Amino acid sequence: MKNRIQALALLDRAMVSMTDDEVETLVATLPDDHRETIDKICGAREGGFETPATRTLAVRSTVARGRMNGALEQIATVLTDPCLADCIEQLGDSSDNPTEADLADVTPGLIERHGLATVRLTLAASIAGEAAASVVLTRLLKHDEVLALPAREAEASPVVVLPNAADDQTKARRRVAKERKQAESQARRQQQARARNRA
């Protein structure tokens, strides 16, 4: 359980450390079916999100809510699929359990083709997926000069989970409207009662 929590924490850090531009650039390179899957996980209506910025906001929100229910891992798996496939191809026979030297050989090319943030996310997603090389990957994400994740102080501010906030606002508006109607109805009844008493 401890290893599981640590793996998810690394994946969360890799996701949070990505800038919005990096997320949007990565999503733009995905095949259409991958983008549609991201939209579905993030609760888009039919046709998907209208703009990259809206999708990124939804991804951030879903990740913030999905750290324990699997949504974080689902999103990371889809986002990193092309990079992971490239990594496996480059590693060849070593792909099942690569050494640090094997990874040192292939990561510069991966970074050039996919970007540093995506490679970090791919390594973190592999750890969360319980890859055989998880110990090596963890060491790279913690201590490698290039691949190490940025310190938490350098990460983006915590994400405000907008969908739930919107739901709360809607509930509050409905509650106020209901209370107003009840008050108006009660006032009418009292007015009618007074009118009957005067008669």
Q: Can you describe this structure?
A:
The protein is mostly helical. The chain contains nine helices and no strands.
Fraction in helix: over 70%
Q: What kind of oligomer do you see?
A: single chain
Q: What is the residue-averaged pLDDT?
A: 84
What gyration radius follows from the Cα positions, in whole Å? 25 Å
User: What is the SS-derived class?
Assistant: mainly alpha
Which consecutive residue ranges, at least 5 long each, have pLDDT under 50? 154-166
Distance between the termini: 76 Å
Number of domains: 2
Number of strands: 0
What profile does the largest beta sheet have?
none
Shape: elongated
Please report the number of helical segments.
9
Order of helices and strands: HHHHHHHHH
Share in β-strands: under 5%
Topology, please?
Blueprint: H1 2-16, H2 20-29, H3 32-41, H4 52-65, H5 71-91, H6 100-114, H7 116-128, H8 134-143, H9 162-198
Helix pairs in contact: 1-7, 2-4, 3-5, 5-6, 5-7, 6-7, 7-8
Keywords:
199 residues; mainly alpha; 2 domains; 9 helices
Could you give a short description of this structure?
The protein is mainly alpha-helical and 199 residues long. The protein has nine helices and no strands. It has two domains: 153 residues, no CATH class; 39 residues.
